[in-house]
Amino acid sequence: MKRIGGFRRARESFGLDDIALVPSASTIDPEDVDLSWELGPYRLRLPFVAAAMDSVVDTRVAIAMSELGGLAVLNLEGLQTRYEDPEEAYQAIAQAPPEEALSVLQRLYQEPIKEELVGARIEAIVEAGALCAVSMTPAAAASLAPLAQEAGAHVIVVQSTVASAHHHSSRGRATSIQALCERISVPVVVGNCASFEAARSLLAAGAAALLVGVGPGAACTSRRVLGVGVPQATAVADVAAARDAYFHTTGRYVPVVADGGISTGGDVAKAIALGADAVMLGSALARAEEAPGRGFHWGMAAPHAALPRGTRIRVGTTGTLRQILLGPAAVDDGSQNLAEALRTAMGMCGARTIREMHQAEIIIAPSILTEGKALQFAQRVGQGR
């Protein structure tokens, strides 16, 4: 703990760029590494989850992610359930000048959610034989979760900037994660959290998985707007510690999904080593040719009518979904072939499985990305971009 001033103290925290993984004395062939993980009754081949953002996931991407071995989460409060044909909305967002992007987003998201589209989108994914995960805010969960379950969704994600087991309000409305988990028969993933105590309460409430990350996303502005957030390395480690303590007490293992601030293979490997079982990818997948955002990316809180906590950013289009996840990579910045990067890192750290990777040695190394790379930075190539 460090003294800020007076009697106020604060502990130091770290982001993913502040740490590095130490190679093991005993290494493993990357071909022998198993990247699979479990979410409720489902075993997924790849630890990659496409974020519930309209710029990242539509029904086509959800199906493609499932075919590749990952999982995509469809936002049930987004453009896909507000418009029968959302293409005009996407086009308007892509064409908006930077100074008008926010107002365009706010206007488009004023269109009401249509129950028939909720069912139709889910059915399209399920009928294609894909694993279907859908997202909603706690305020909408009471109405949307049963509707999604009835339509055939396999996984429900209840997601907000900060999640708590019980949300208290003097206005008489309260959200109980425990009541929702008891009411819904499919796995309920809950997020986002960033501390040991918050994670422990959500685990006790019955969450089937936890999303970790408050503010690290590329399009998120919550940390500036609210002053709230925890650097991602510390957040993942704290939540994973709560998960491990809960597992030792109850025997129920709950996967942790690092959400935000992850764009390269190195980021993925560090998040897994810190205790995550999978990573949620937003901007990294918004760059895919199949992504509906047309080279742009924005978060779920960006269109908020009263207090926007996100922005539209341009990410471009760099390759196919398969290239980004499975390669072969056409770029040298670590943003493609994330699976092979993770396999290689796990092999170097002597880990055959995701859970073995949780034991990898981690060091605090703020110079890890810049040491010896002066020429790359001068020429704006490789790590110097």
CATH T-level fold name: TIM Barrel
Number of domains: 1
How many strand elements? 18
- Strand order across the biggest sheet? 6-7-8-9-12-13-14-15
Average pLDDT metric = 93
- CATH first level: which class? Alpha Beta
Largest sheet: 8 strands, parallel, barrel
Strand content: 15-25%
CATH homology superfamily name: Aldolase class I
The helical percent reads 25-40%
Broad structural category: alpha/beta
Distance between the termini: 35 Å
Protein traits:
385 residues; alpha/beta; TIM Barrel; two-stranded antiparallel ribbon; 18 strands; globular
What is the gist of this entry?
With 385 residues, the chain is an alpha/beta fold. The chain has 16 helices and 18 strands.
What does this structure look like?
The protein has 385 residues and is an alpha/beta fold. It has helices spanning 59-68, 79-82, 87-95, 101-108, 115-127, 138-151, 177-183, 196-204, 222-226, 232-250, 265-273, 283-286, 321-326, 338-348, 354-357, 374-379, and strands at residues 2-5, 8-10, 19-21, 37-39, 42-44, 48-50, 71-75, 133-136, 155-159, 166-167, 175-176, 188-193, 209-212, 256-259, 278-281, 296-297, 313-314, 362-364. Helix 1 (59-68) links the parallel strand 6 and strand 7. The chain is built from 16 helices and 18 strands. The protein has a single domain (9-384), classed as TIM Barrel (Alpha-Beta Barrel), CATH 3.20.20.70. 36% of the residues lie in helices and 16% in strands.
